[in-house]
Amino acid sequence: MSLKILVFSDWYLPGTQAGGPTQSLHSMTQHVVNVSFFIVTRNTDHGSNQPYPVQTETWISHTDQTHVFYLNENKINEAVFEKIILEIQPNWIYLNSLWSPLFTQLPLKIAKRHELQFKVICAPRGMLKPEALKIKPFKKKGFLLLSRIRKTYSNIVWHATSEIESREIRHFFGAHAKVHIAPNLASLETTDLNEKNKSPNQLHLFTVARVSLEKGILEAAELLAHWNKPAVWKIAGLLQDSDLVNHVNALLKNTEIKHEWLGHLNREQIRDYYQWAHVFYLPTRGENFGHAIAEGLSAGLPAIISNATPWQNLSMEGAGFDLPIDKNAFHEAFDFYWSMHTLDYSKCRTCAQKYIRAKANKREHINQLQSLFFKE
């Protein structure tokens, strides 16, 4: 039996600047079978006013089972959404965000007006993590309180990607909230590792993340600023916080760390930097999944990351280090790769790729995601 899933998401491909939620949605469309996805989204990327080179207000087929409806900003409204919902008559409405006033709240309002004739799934995408709630805390906690009072999210299914996220959902929306756990899946490229030289007393660190406080960019700079060896650090990602950029520049000004803000890069440009880099570096405050980490490992970059991601026990597999935000621990990890030569480094690259291929996209995870739509 083929189901129709109508997805509302602020951003989707070809956009990349929204990060993890876009990647998680795309990966879901790649792996779930016997489903037709109809994705309603903007015709611009996150943080951009430049429209995609696509036709709007019509269904565009990305694959046989994935169809996308791009909307101009002035067409994002309740009447347009209701027309789409009534035309598609989906088995499920899937909301790819918790906060979005347009792409979550409006479809949910319409579904409730139709007395939930259309069943609803909501994916918080890590937005209930303590680290995420520290950003604009009063606004977010006020919204959550009001949502509970109004029972905004009653009678829906929650898509949690881990047991931790399941507990976060029940903490805010009640012990009886209906939660289905299905881990995120990664979009991994199967590529052979190119030869890469690594000289001792050399370290190239590469970060792919939005430049914002919750991604740990400040912690990354502070840890490097107190390390006493030369290295090069390049950061690829949307520059969302100019104050943070200025703070990092000041921290590293009189150190031996050369750093460069690359801004947002497309996937092909990022792949070029994978060849330059020795290590993927991200002491994030918390990741629901960490697509950038997974992709870096898949490209053969050992990772130095915080222990607040699903990617655990890296050192046991020779794939890097997942550490508490502790200066001494990170400095030891930097030293480990800084002093390494090509032969040992090549082994680490192989281990990184082997680790992520074993950990990501397990058959049981695909089955859990499949059952999200077929067993409720």
Key terms for this structure?
Rossmann fold; 2 domains; eight-stranded mixed beta sheet; six-stranded parallel beta sheet; about 40% helix
Task: Summarize the entry for a quick read.
The protein has 376 residues and is of the alpha/beta class. The chain has helices spanning 20-31, 78-88, 101-113, 130-133, 137-150, 163-173, 217-225, 242-252, 267-276, 291-298, 327-338, 342-359, 363-374; strands spanning 3-8, 35-42, 59-61, 66-71, 92-95, 119-122, 157-160, 178-181, 204-208, 231-236, 257-263, 279-282, 303-306, 320-323.
The beta-strand count equals 14
Label the structural class: alpha/beta
Largest beta-sheet characterization? 8 strands, mixed
Alpha carbon gyration radius: 21 Å
Shape: globular
| Strand line-up across the major sheet | 3-4-2-1-5-6-7-8
Instruction: Please identify, by name, the CATH architecture of the largest domain.
Output: 3-Layer(aba) Sandwich
Parts with pLDDT < 50 across at least 5 consecutive residues? none
Could you state the order of secondary-structure elements as H and E?
EHEEEHEHEHHEHEEHEHEHEHEEHHH
What's the topology here?
Elements lengths: L2 E6 L11 H12 L3 E8 L16 E3 L4 E6 L6 H11 L3 E4 L5 H13 L5 E4 L7 H4 L3 H14 L6 E4 L2 H11 L4 E4 L22 E5 L8 H9 L5 E6 L5 H11 L4 E7 L3 H10 L2 E4 L8 H8 L4 E4 L13 E4 L3 H12 L3 H18 L3 H12 L2
Parallel strand pairs: 1-2, 1-5, 2-4, 5-6, 6-7, 7-8, 9-10, 9-12, 10-11, 12-13, 13-14
Antiparallel strand pairs: 3-4
Helix pairs in contact: 2-3, 7-8
